[in-house]
Amino acid sequence: MKKSVNMSVATVISVALLMANNQTIYAAAPPASNDYYLSNQLHLSQIRAHQAWSVVNSNEQIIIAVLDSGADYKHPDLKDNLLPGVNLVNPGRSAQDDNGHGTEVTGVLAASGNNSIGVSGVLWNAKILPIKVLAKNGDTTVQTLAKGINTALDRGAKVIVMSLSSMSYSKELANAVQRAERSGAVLIAASGNESSRVAYPAAYPTVVAVGAVRSNNEVLYQSNTGPELNLVAPGFNVYTTKLGGKYGSFSGTSAAAPQVAGAAALILARHPKLSPFDVRQLLYQTATDLGEKGWDRKTGYGLLNVDKAVRTALSYDFLEPNNQTYSAKAFPIESQIRGNLGPKDTIDWLKMDIPYDGKVSFTATVTSGISSAMAATFYPENRPPIVQYFGNGDTITVPVKAGKMNIRLMRNGGVNNSFTYVLTSKFTINPDRNEPNDTQETARPLVGNQISVTGNFHDEGDQDWFSYYVREYGHLDVSVSPDNKRVDLMLSIGKQELGKKMVVWDPTYDNGTKDNPTERVQKEVSPGKYYIRVSEYNRNAVNGEYQLDLGYTPVKKDFNEPNDTYQKASPLSGGTVMSGTIPTASDSDWFQFTVNSESYVTFRAPYIPVDSGFRFALYSDRNMNYAIASTNEVAELSNRGSDIFGLRLQPGKYYVRLNSGTSFKYESYRLTVTQQKLIAGYRDISDHWARSEIVRLSARDIVNGFNDASFKPNQAVTRAEFATMLLKSMRATGSKVATTYTGKTTFRDMPKRHWAYHNLGVAYQLGILKGYPKNEMKPDQPISRAEMAVMIARARDVLMYNRGTSNYQDVPTSHWASPAIEALTSRKWLSGYGSSFKPNGRATRAEVVVVLSKAYQL
To answer: Residues in the active site (predicted)?
Structure first.
């Protein structure tokens, strides 16, 4: 993964501002300054900067440092507010921006206001110190960023804004942040744009972590969230300064952070003696609540409200009322909180979300001189309460389980006066269940072919070792995935040399990216002991977990080998199944089977391990030089569920050759061969009740089958098919039936190109077949059993008359086909289904053959 700090620039697909139901879209208020593009700066209305400007609009008493890619010193809207900068990327050179990001950030913060040109920053007039820490490509290191903070402090900066982020904790950066707090400088940083946990430096407790929202106050998808988030500000299409004296929009948490920095500077213009902690608390106290009531992980304390921030007096306990369990206020881990306890307010309730099993440390600053001024009762979920006592400077640690924890703070009984407390929390994850496994000797054995374990880096320098014993040649698939992007994983895999302790390691696998931080290895393995080592790139302790997944697949045994030539062809098991592997592209698998009588043989491929390039060829032992049938698309046919081949084979010995352009050895192909003995050339009548009639009429060419050697005896017969069969039966018994239709009657659905045009026409001309209204013949419509009876009766010139009784309960004497059905039944040419005839049922091919056989004595 990239180990650098990146600008927090969000990629925005659409720049359109959409109206949505029940959402407030902020429109620009009447101009509070005369800047030309002020109406484009909707974010200023959203954070109520216009209203704040009537109270305070500038701060030229303090230095505000912008740690970024520099600034455009020639930009007409910036040059009057810029101090000579510092270039830490190329020392000795100016801090002129060569990327553009710093110019955009600086414009949001302090483009000159009310100067009749361009845009306005949150600050109209200011002393901005650009410190170039980002190179031209937008990257830097945490060391350079830490140096930038220290350089800003050395130059006397009281507000430092950083629209950049790194997912990695850094001691050097943490020390610089702590120095800023001691030096009285307010730090503001973008939360980052990775759709993950709040990044550093924003994640440090004394830095204001700023997320981004759209114009309707919905959180920007990319904006990082979590327990460290403090505020949100507009971060979508924020109109600002651009390189070369231009203007335009940019998006992301980078655009949100400088708005908060501008508000901090305006607060200090009104209250120059406030500490950094006080400035942060006033920003949180005056934010417009969004989402869940009070603080939440997505929006922090809410949307920046500049107007309220510069007009409101600082509260030392803005979380009130919280003296009951139900009114407990959120205390995020890795953050700070302030409150008061006194004679009239003796209890404060707080609540904390615990992400993992671990422990939370609380460091207290208490204005009371009593050593144990405050009693704290902690209520971890599913654990007994824990009581601890706080005095000024005390740190206590509480074991916690993942889930909710309530905290009750109470003024100790011996304390008479009111006092203020500040608590700073720090969470540490417990060691994972695999510990201790920090060395080769303590490596945790993994057993099984599919394994999943969860681990973490609970301590600085922690690394996790696992061992896995491979018994056969095979394929190993190992992946490690973090649950948040602060965990920068590295994966190492090595094999222990036989009989030695030494491990031969692969090159370290470190290919994850910000968008896909998973590390994955797929490799061939041989019998022996393997070690897997998982570590964090910066060797940090990280509050997060990873999941290690291991899958082992042994080489599939091909029990048919050796069968690489036709002389070694494997006889098919039961004559039906072929299976095996193709471990090399040059490998071929041969099978043999015998056909004892003329048969229809069908080849199918239920499973092929590759997507293409699998080849099939069929040979007869009578000529091994040429394939009877072959195809290179076995895999494609398998995926479609289609047969590979179906063909008639004469008695003899046959061979199948299989090979593949793409080799595989961890899965087996599966092909089947099915033999169906042919009766009169048909494969589907061997045990059919109408078999003898089908054979007889087929021999006389009265009925025919299909190209796939089937007769389909149970398939419905169409009017065209029945007319054809009937006329053939008449001719076979000596009737002089025309072969060409010469009549003048035409039917719109029976064109001359129809395959049965003449047969249908002759049957119509003979009065055997009738048409339908609207000049329709409906040649392809299935014929009913009633129509079949009537047409045969007409063809045989059977006397038909209405009878007094019926042989079938579903054919009353009034039925239009009753005379024909009764006449044919009496001659035993036709029968029903017990007492039913099913006159509207479709006549099948088998039924037609039997009726024709009886009616014409065929």
So the answer is: 68 (charge relay system), 101 (charge relay system), 254 (charge relay system)
